[in-house]
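Input structure tokens:
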């Protein structure tokens, strides 16, 4: 069953995409175009069932609408999932077939990279589609969007540290990062540069070894499941979603949770469990917006410094959300949703349904 944390589950559009010759099976979900065309990445993942894929794309696309609203972007929320193993099933033919489906939406949905897809994949999709961002530098794109994603999460961490400890720094704190792939490895560098001790874990030994080579001072936990209960000050989930559930939250020893994974809360009510335990939770769709900001800037002709300056504002937005949560006596998730919904309602009523020009 899909959880929407009190949000309306209504979506403007849901598109099933099938191309038998290439093996393409995909779902595109457009949650809202109240603020502009729906921008969101394409996730390539071997879902166990189509229902699992549908639940994921509905949740992810809804979160993208809230993420864009909180980031102050004139964009709506969308997402796509391709069902399959990217290492085995990803081909030029499949990506180009998918590109044709995106093109058929006339610009209501703009795609980008996500788990299992990369900038070179966007270049292939762009051979059939005008509505693609997150492309390679040599093709006019911004390149790796994980750079500003990690930078934005770090800004969220600083805001949480200020709220919890009175100073916007991780210096002297022990930070645990679960998942050191595209985003997590950049986050490790930010935390270390700020003076934190860092402990990492990942199911991929290759990802761990890369971090060890770059940062030999980092501690590594061999058991990925052990980090949740480790003696750390800040827990940063940066792998797939659902890391915080009825089993893991009681094990948490960290006083702050702030990470890059989408949909970290397994179901409605987890935000209350964190609040009751005195754990400060930074909503994922608030702090991980740096990548969205980066690929959105690409639509204007990418300027890294301009995009980085906008991603730096995640610090101020996180401070605002945490202050509102404390003022109104609600979890930060509720406060973040209220801010996003306010902007979508106030601006969206002027625009309503986005149509291509």
């Amino acid at each position: 069953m899909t959880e929407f944390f009190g949000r309306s589950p209504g979506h403007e559009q849901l598109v099933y995409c099938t191309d038998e010759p290439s093996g393409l099976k995909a779902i595109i979900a457009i949650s809202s175009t109240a603020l502009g065309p729906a921008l969101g990445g394409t996730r390539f993942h071997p879902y166990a069932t189509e229902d699992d894929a549908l639940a994921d794309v509905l949740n992810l696309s809804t979160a993208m609408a809230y993420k864009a609203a909180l980031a102050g972007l004139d964009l709506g929320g969308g997402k796509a999932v391709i069902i399959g193993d990217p290492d085995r099933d990803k081909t030029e033919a499949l990506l180009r077939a998918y590109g044709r489906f995106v093109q058929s939406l006339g610009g209501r949905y703009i795609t980008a990279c996500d788990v299992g897809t990369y900038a070179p994949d966007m270049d292939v999709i762009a051979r059939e589609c005008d509505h693609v961002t997150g492309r390679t530098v040599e093709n006019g794109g911004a390149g790796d969007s994980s750079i500003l994603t990690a930078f934005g999460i770090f800004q969220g961490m600083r805001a949480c540290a200020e709220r919890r400890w009175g100073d916007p720094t991780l210096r002297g704190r022990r930070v645990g990062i679960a998942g050191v792939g595209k985003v997590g490895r950049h986050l490790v560098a930010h935390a270390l540069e700020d003076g934190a001790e860092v402990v990492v874990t990942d199911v991929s030994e290759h990802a761990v070894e890369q971090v060890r080579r770059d940062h030999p001072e980092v501690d590594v936990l061999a058991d990925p499941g052990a980090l949740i209960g480790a003696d750390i000050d800040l827990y940063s989930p940066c792998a797939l979603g659902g890391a915080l559930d009825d089993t893991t939250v009681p094990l948490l020893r960290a006083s702050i949770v702030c990470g890059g994974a989408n949909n970290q809360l397994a179901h409605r009510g987890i935000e209350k469990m964190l609040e009751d335990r005195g754990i400060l939770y930074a909503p994922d769709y608030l702090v991980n917006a740096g990548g969205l900001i980066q690929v959105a800037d690409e639509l204007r002709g990418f300027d890294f410094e301009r995009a980085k300056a906008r991603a730096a504002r995640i610090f101020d937005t996180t401070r605002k959300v945490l202050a509102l949560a404390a003022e109104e006596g609600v979890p930060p998730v509720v406060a973040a949703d209220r801010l996003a919904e306010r902007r979508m309602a106030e601006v969206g009523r002027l625009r309503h349904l986005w149509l291509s020009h």
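The two ends are 37 Å apart (CA to CA). DSSP finds 13 helices and eleven strands in the chain.
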